[in-house]
Q: What sequence folds into this?
Protein backbone atom coordinates (compact mmCIF):
# COMPACT_ATOMS: atom_id res chain seq x y z
CA UNK A 1 0.00 0.00 0.00
CA UNK A 2 1.05 3.57 -0.53
CA UNK A 3 -0.19 4.75 2.87
CA UNK A 4 -1.15 3.17 6.17
CA UNK A 5 -4.94 3.03 6.45
CA UNK A 6 -5.58 1.68 2.97
CA UNK A 7 -5.95 -1.78 4.52
CA UNK A 8 -9.38 -0.78 5.81
CA UNK A 9 -10.76 -1.12 2.28
CA UNK A 10 -9.90 -4.85 2.26
CA UNK A 11 -10.45 -5.68 5.92
CA UNK A 12 -12.54 -8.76 5.16
CA UNK A 13 -10.06 -10.09 2.60
CA UNK A 14 -7.26 -9.65 5.12
CA UNK A 15 -9.26 -11.46 7.80
CA UNK A 16 -9.68 -14.39 5.39
CA UNK A 17 -6.10 -14.51 4.07
CA UNK A 18 -3.98 -13.00 6.88
CA UNK A 19 -1.47 -11.54 4.42
CA UNK A 20 1.92 -9.96 4.85
CA UNK A 21 1.35 -6.20 4.49
CA UNK A 22 3.88 -3.79 3.00
CA UNK A 23 3.37 -0.02 3.29
CA UNK A 24 5.64 2.38 1.44
CA UNK A 25 5.03 5.55 3.48
CA UNK A 26 4.25 6.34 7.10
CA UNK A 27 1.19 8.43 6.17
CA UNK A 28 2.62 11.50 7.87
CA UNK A 29 1.35 13.99 5.28
CA UNK A 30 2.51 17.58 5.61
CA UNK A 31 1.93 17.46 9.37
CA UNK A 32 4.76 15.03 9.99
CA UNK A 33 3.00 12.57 12.35
CA UNK A 34 3.20 8.88 11.38
CA UNK A 35 0.03 6.80 11.50
CA UNK A 36 1.75 3.41 11.27
CA UNK A 37 0.74 2.60 14.86
CA UNK A 38 -2.94 2.74 13.87
CA UNK A 39 -2.33 0.30 11.03
CA UNK A 40 -0.52 -1.96 13.50
CA UNK A 41 -3.78 -2.24 15.44
CA UNK A 42 -5.79 -3.05 12.30
CA UNK A 43 -3.36 -5.78 11.23
CA UNK A 44 -3.34 -7.27 14.72
CA UNK A 45 -7.13 -7.41 14.64
CA UNK A 46 -7.17 -9.60 11.52
CA UNK A 47 -4.04 -11.65 12.13
CA UNK A 48 -2.03 -9.99 9.33
CA UNK A 49 1.69 -9.25 9.64
CA UNK A 50 3.79 -6.23 8.64
CA UNK A 51 6.31 -6.79 5.86
CA UNK A 52 9.88 -5.57 5.51
CA UNK A 53 8.71 -2.39 3.76
CA UNK A 54 6.62 -0.68 6.40
CA UNK A 55 6.51 3.09 6.67
CA UNK A 56 9.81 3.24 4.80
CA UNK A 57 9.38 6.82 3.54
CA UNK A 58 7.64 9.92 4.82
CA UNK A 59 5.10 11.53 2.53
CA UNK A 60 7.49 14.43 2.01
CA UNK A 61 10.19 11.98 0.93
CA UNK A 62 8.05 10.12 -1.59
CA UNK A 63 6.84 13.36 -3.18
CA UNK A 64 10.40 14.66 -3.32
CA UNK A 65 11.56 11.41 -4.95
CA UNK A 66 8.88 11.73 -7.63
CA UNK A 67 9.53 15.43 -8.23
CA UNK A 68 13.30 14.90 -8.43
CA UNK A 69 13.01 11.89 -10.74
CA UNK A 70 14.71 9.60 -8.21
CA UNK A 71 13.49 6.46 -9.97
CA UNK A 72 16.20 4.29 -8.44
CA UNK A 73 14.52 4.64 -5.06
CA UNK A 74 11.33 3.09 -6.41
CA UNK A 75 13.21 0.43 -8.36
CA UNK A 76 14.94 -0.58 -5.11
CA UNK A 77 11.53 -0.90 -3.44
CA UNK A 78 10.25 -3.06 -6.30
CA UNK A 79 13.29 -5.32 -6.09
CA UNK A 80 12.92 -5.74 -2.32
CA UNK A 81 9.22 -6.42 -2.68
CA UNK A 82 9.86 -8.97 -5.43
CA UNK A 83 12.43 -10.74 -3.26
CA UNK A 84 9.89 -10.98 -0.44
CA UNK A 85 7.28 -12.44 -2.81
CA UNK A 86 9.72 -15.14 -3.89
CA UNK A 87 10.96 -15.85 -0.37
CA UNK A 88 7.42 -16.12 1.05
CA UNK A 89 6.12 -18.04 -1.98
CA UNK A 90 3.39 -15.45 -2.45
CA UNK A 91 0.74 -16.40 -5.02
CA UNK A 92 -1.71 -13.48 -4.63
CA UNK A 93 -0.94 -9.76 -4.31
CA UNK A 94 -3.44 -6.94 -3.76
CA UNK A 95 -2.77 -3.22 -3.46
CA UNK A 96 -3.66 0.33 -4.40
CA UNK A 97 -5.43 0.96 -7.69
CA UNK A 98 -4.46 3.70 -10.13
CA UNK A 99 -7.18 6.33 -9.71
CA UNK A 100 -5.42 9.61 -10.50
CA UNK A 101 -6.38 10.81 -7.03
CA UNK A 102 -3.04 10.71 -5.22
CA UNK A 103 0.32 10.28 -6.97
CA UNK A 104 1.68 8.17 -4.10
CA UNK A 105 -1.14 5.66 -4.59
CA UNK A 106 -0.44 5.45 -8.31
CA UNK A 107 3.31 5.19 -7.77
CA UNK A 108 2.67 2.36 -5.33
CA UNK A 109 0.74 0.49 -8.02
CA UNK A 110 3.62 0.82 -10.45
CA UNK A 111 6.01 -0.54 -7.81
CA UNK A 112 3.65 -3.46 -7.14
CA UNK A 113 3.34 -4.30 -10.83
CA UNK A 114 7.10 -4.24 -11.28
CA UNK A 115 7.59 -6.46 -8.22
CA UNK A 116 5.02 -8.99 -9.42
CA UNK A 117 6.59 -9.17 -12.87
CA UNK A 118 10.07 -9.60 -11.41
CA UNK A 119 8.98 -12.21 -8.86
CA UNK A 120 6.93 -14.18 -11.39
CA UNK A 121 9.92 -14.36 -13.72
CA UNK A 122 12.37 -15.25 -10.96
CA UNK A 123 10.19 -17.96 -9.39
CA UNK A 124 8.90 -19.27 -12.72
CA UNK A 125 5.35 -19.31 -11.42
CA UNK A 126 2.38 -16.96 -11.86
CA UNK A 127 1.35 -14.48 -9.19
CA UNK A 128 -2.22 -13.18 -9.28
CA UNK A 129 -2.25 -9.39 -9.07
CA UNK A 130 -5.24 -7.34 -7.92
CA UNK A 131 -6.05 -3.68 -7.24
CA UNK A 132 -8.68 -2.17 -4.99
CA UNK A 133 -10.07 1.39 -5.14
CA UNK A 134 -9.35 3.87 -2.38
CA UNK A 135 -11.31 6.95 -3.38
CA UNK A 136 -14.06 5.43 -5.55
CA UNK A 137 -16.88 3.18 -4.39
CA UNK A 138 -15.71 -0.37 -3.58
CA UNK A 139 -17.45 -1.76 -6.66
CA UNK A 140 -15.99 0.83 -9.04
CA UNK A 141 -13.69 -0.90 -11.56
CA UNK A 142 -10.40 0.70 -12.58
CA UNK A 143 -10.46 2.81 -15.72
CA UNK A 144 -8.23 0.23 -17.42
CA UNK A 145 -9.02 -3.17 -15.96
CA UNK A 146 -8.86 -6.68 -17.35
CA UNK A 147 -11.50 -9.01 -16.03
CA UNK A 148 -14.01 -9.87 -13.35
CA UNK A 149 -13.17 -8.97 -9.75
CA UNK A 150 -12.48 -11.24 -6.84
CA UNK A 151 -15.35 -10.51 -4.43
CA UNK A 152 -15.30 -10.97 -0.67
CA UNK A 153 -18.67 -10.58 1.04
CA UNK A 154 -18.60 -9.85 4.76
CA UNK A 155 -21.19 -11.25 7.16
CA UNK A 156 -22.77 -8.95 9.74
CA UNK A 157 -20.19 -9.51 12.53
CA UNK A 158 -17.25 -9.00 10.18
CA UNK A 159 -18.77 -5.87 8.65
CA UNK A 160 -19.28 -4.50 12.14
CA UNK A 161 -15.62 -5.23 12.98
CA UNK A 162 -14.56 -3.45 9.79
CA UNK A 163 -16.62 -0.37 10.59
CA UNK A 164 -15.36 -0.32 14.17
CA UNK A 165 -11.76 -0.51 12.93
CA UNK A 166 -12.42 2.39 10.56
CA UNK A 167 -13.97 4.53 13.29
CA UNK A 168 -11.10 3.70 15.65
CA UNK A 169 -8.48 4.86 13.12
CA UNK A 170 -8.13 8.32 14.64
CA UNK A 171 -5.99 9.89 11.88
CA UNK A 172 -8.55 9.02 9.18
CA UNK A 173 -11.76 10.19 10.82
CA UNK A 174 -12.46 12.84 8.18
CA UNK A 175 -11.82 10.40 5.33
CA UNK A 176 -13.96 7.69 6.93
CA UNK A 177 -16.84 10.11 7.56
CA UNK A 178 -16.64 11.41 3.98
CA UNK A 179 -16.70 7.88 2.52
CA UNK A 180 -19.68 6.86 4.63
CA UNK A 181 -21.50 10.09 3.73
CA UNK A 182 -20.87 9.47 0.03
CA UNK A 183 -21.64 5.77 -0.17
CA UNK A 184 -23.24 4.64 3.10
CA UNK A 185 -22.05 1.57 4.98
CA UNK A 186 -23.76 -1.08 2.80
CA UNK A 187 -21.34 -0.93 -0.18
CA UNK A 188 -18.43 -1.73 2.14
CA UNK A 189 -19.92 -5.14 2.91
CA UNK A 190 -18.55 -6.48 -0.38
CA UNK A 191 -14.90 -5.93 -1.23
CA UNK A 192 -13.82 -5.94 -4.87
CA UNK A 193 -10.29 -6.83 -5.91
CA UNK A 194 -9.84 -6.12 -9.60
CA UNK A 195 -7.39 -8.05 -11.81
CA UNK A 196 -4.48 -5.89 -12.99
CA UNK A 197 -3.23 -5.86 -16.56
CA UNK A 198 0.51 -6.26 -16.07
CA UNK A 199 1.05 -5.51 -19.77
CA UNK A 200 -0.23 -1.94 -19.31
CA UNK A 201 2.80 0.21 -18.42
CA UNK A 202 1.00 3.19 -16.87
CA UNK A 203 -2.67 2.14 -16.34
CA UNK A 204 -3.81 5.68 -17.11
CA UNK A 205 -5.03 7.52 -20.21
CA UNK A 206 -2.12 9.78 -21.19
CA UNK A 207 -4.63 12.43 -22.31
CA UNK A 208 -6.46 12.37 -18.96
CA UNK A 209 -5.71 14.96 -16.28
CA UNK A 210 -5.53 13.38 -12.83
CA UNK A 211 -7.13 15.04 -9.83
CA UNK A 212 -3.81 15.34 -8.02
CA UNK A 213 -2.59 17.93 -10.56
CA UNK A 214 -5.37 20.43 -9.89
CA UNK A 215 -5.26 19.72 -6.15
CA UNK A 216 -1.50 20.15 -6.10
CA UNK A 217 -1.79 23.48 -7.90
CA UNK A 218 -4.19 24.66 -5.19
CA UNK A 219 -1.72 23.61 -2.48
CA UNK A 220 1.06 25.51 -4.22
CA UNK A 221 -1.13 28.61 -4.37
CA UNK A 222 -1.87 28.18 -0.69
CA UNK A 223 1.83 27.99 0.12
CA UNK A 224 1.72 24.37 1.35
CA UNK A 225 3.58 22.83 -1.61
CA UNK A 226 6.38 24.34 -3.65
CA UNK A 227 5.98 22.16 -6.76
CA UNK A 228 3.19 20.16 -8.36
CA UNK A 229 3.47 16.44 -9.16
CA UNK A 230 2.11 15.88 -12.68
CA UNK A 231 1.41 12.74 -14.64
CA UNK A 232 3.42 13.71 -17.71
CA UNK A 233 6.51 15.07 -15.95
CA UNK A 234 6.72 12.79 -12.94
CA UNK A 235 4.39 9.78 -12.66
CA UNK A 236 4.62 8.51 -16.23
CA UNK A 237 8.44 8.70 -16.31
CA UNK A 238 8.46 6.73 -13.05
CA UNK A 239 6.12 4.11 -14.50
CA UNK A 240 8.28 3.94 -17.63
CA UNK A 241 11.46 3.50 -15.56
CA UNK A 242 9.96 0.62 -13.60
CA UNK A 243 8.64 -0.93 -16.81
CA UNK A 244 12.03 -0.69 -18.51
CA UNK A 245 13.79 -2.12 -15.47
CA UNK A 246 11.52 -5.15 -15.62
CA UNK A 247 12.00 -5.48 -19.37
CA UNK A 248 15.75 -5.54 -18.87
CA UNK A 249 15.47 -8.20 -16.18
CA UNK A 250 12.82 -10.50 -17.62
A:
Amino acid sequence: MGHPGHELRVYGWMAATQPVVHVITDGSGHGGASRVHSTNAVLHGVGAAPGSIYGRMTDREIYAAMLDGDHDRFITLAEELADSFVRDRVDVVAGDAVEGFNPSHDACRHVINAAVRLASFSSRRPIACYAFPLEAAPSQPPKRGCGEPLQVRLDDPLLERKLQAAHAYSELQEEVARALDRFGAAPFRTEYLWPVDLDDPCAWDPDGVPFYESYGAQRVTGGIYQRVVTFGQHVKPLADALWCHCADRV
Remarks:
- The mean pLDDT is 95.
- The beta strands are 20-25, 49-57, 92-96, 128-132, 150-153, 190-195.
